[in-house]
Design brief:
It is a single chain. The chain has a 7-stranded mixed β-sheet with strand order 3-2-1-4-5-7-6, covered by helices on one side. The chain contains 5 helices and 7 strands; from the N terminus they run ααβαβαββαβββ. It is α/β, with parallel strands linked by helices. Helix 3 links the parallel strand 1 and strand 2. It is globular. The chain starts with a helix and ends with a strand. Helix content is 39%, strand content 21%. Helix 2 crosses helix 3. The longest helix has 18 residues. It has a single domain, classed as 3-Layer(aba) Sandwich (Rossmann fold), CATH 3.40.50.
């Protein structure tokens, strides 16, 4: 009986994760040194509004919030990763950090000053027009591992490039 109960509980916990299609990028956690490099490239300031598109477990959101971003948002579709990230934010008592269960193509980025992407090339290609339309001049985009066509390359790191409008 206990085995059946455990199976049902595990199924209920994992079902939302299994039902989410990984169409825009698979979840690949960043190594701590990559997180540090992304933060260095992003040059987070106290008035920055930070967005991580496809935030996974929220580690870039946490890093930006801890470095003093005015607000840090993670945008993630996977219910399990959203819950996991929100638990970390609560545990760390980060009032300036938020996780949104939302589609990266539907979230409003008009307030963003820093946007990070660790997506597939085809997803970056699809995001170009949205980023051009919604981001203000001077916003910084850090794309990890894949290029962002049509944006001016400002910095290159062995860990990934940073782009800007």
């Amino acid at each position: 009986m206990l085995g059946v109960i455990l199976f049902v509980v595990c199924l209920l916990i994992l079902l939302p994760y299994l039902l989410v299609r990984q169409k825009d990028a698979p979840f690949v956690p960043l190594e701590p040194e990559v997180v540090e490099e992304v933060m260095r490239l992003a040059e987070i300031k106290k008035d920055d509004i930070f967005y991580d598109l496809g935030s996974g477990d929220g580690r870039l959101v946490i890093a930006a919030a801890l470095r003093g971003a005015k607000e840090a948002y993670g945008v993630e579709l996977s219910p399990l990763r959203v819950i996991y990230s929100k638990l970390w934010l609560k545990f760390l008592r980060l009032k300036n950090a938020h996780i949104l269960k939302e589609d990266i193509f539907k979230v409003d980025l008009s307030r963003a000053t820093v946007v990070t992407l660790y997506l597939l090339q085809k997803t970056n290609d699809k995001l170009v027009e949205k980023l051009r339309r919604e981001l203000r001049p001077g916003s910084r985009i850090i794309s990890i591992a894949f290029s962002l066509p049509g944006f001016k390359l400002l910095k290159v790191s062995p860990k990934g490039p940073i782009y800007g409008p």
